[in-house]
Amino acid sequence: MNYIFKISFLAKLLPIVGLCLGLATSGQAQQRTAKAIDGIIIKVDNQIILRSELETALAQVASEGQPITPELRCNILRSLLTNSLMLARAEIDSVVVEEDQVNSELDRRMAYFVQQIGSEEKLEEYYNKSLRQLKDDLRRQVKDQLVLQKMQSELTEKITVTPNEVKKYFNQIPKDSLPYFSTEVEIGQIVKLAQIDKKEKDKVRARLEEIKKRIQNGEDFATLAKEFSEDPVSAKDGGNLGFFKKKELVPEYEAASLKLEPGQLSDVIESQFGFHLIQLIERRGEQYNTRHILLKPGSTDLDMEQTAQELEKIRNRILADSISFAKAAKDLSDDAATKNNGGLLPNPQDGSTYIPLDKVDPGIFFTIDTMKVGSITKPLPYRTEDGKQAMRILYLKSNLAPHQANLKDDYQKISAATLNEKRQKAMNTWFNKNKSTVFIDIDPEFDACNILQSINN
User: What residue stretch is flagged as signal peptide (predicted)?
Assistant: First the structure.
């Protein structure tokens, strides 16, 4: 089984994800930290693997119902080693990801954590840390995952499978070992973000201009940031963002900041996060420190109504057969994650479009529960993972009854498994070729796993 990437990053991130979901206590987190100090089990150049990472990965697999066997333990350890080897090779080969990509992913994840625990205040209280500190804790891990994804993509993105390969793969599975699938559904969505009215934007801009005048007339920037800024991470610090390098903040913010002299105020500028009033605090070589006051224009009922009307027009076109749901999603949906897949929601377990009914998000489940296959909902209020207000329509494409795996109904899943196996063979070849190019030290406790032996393809 291919645990590479998924297991490694879960092992690094689950202490944080677990807390957000109420799966661990702060005391347990402290115990993990204390254990990790002397818990190094593998070194790969500058990369290390902690015993706690292996244990967390095993716990994740166990939570999915798999028995923990010695063979599974060794397989997961090999996956952790492979990921560390890839990170070490990425450093040698100068494989990098842009900081704005890291920042964007951090913002997305923090928005998800906040959504899971209920509010920013609860998240900060749970950790006894600010959102800014939590982001700093996660930054290295998120960056490593993005580098791993980039490395994996370069190694496997051109690999494809043919129908004959899929059939051959399926026919090699013993009949008594074919999986049994419970009820599964395919669900599509078309999302439209609420378009904020120009008048609302003008109101926000005017509020910031008034705050700017108050600062110019002698009031303290930090005090006003604490009172008015809608950036919860920096507001508590008087709007202070700390030092950043070029390309680490959104382009509009950076461009305005770099034009300033220390103490100078910017014009009101707009970014994807809202409207900013910026003050440069200090330059230090290639780094700069700013503080800002952020105001976000809100969506009015009228904005949401107009967005719903736009979606209703799209829905009517689909129902009149003037456009397919898939094409409408591709051309018109604002959801980047699903628009190029016909609007279909992915199964988080295997990436296919078939989702077990018991794994469907409760908010969607109770909507589709009484729907007929082929039907489309009226526009429904929706909030994206990063907290933006939107509307969406949901489409029930299929509803597959419980059955034993077969090529006709499950070709997509079997094709994905075939492709996964082919990609794993490519990864095995890469591992065999590169394992001798870096320093690797493995705790003798794991000698029985023999994880440095060449992997058969």
Answer: 1-29
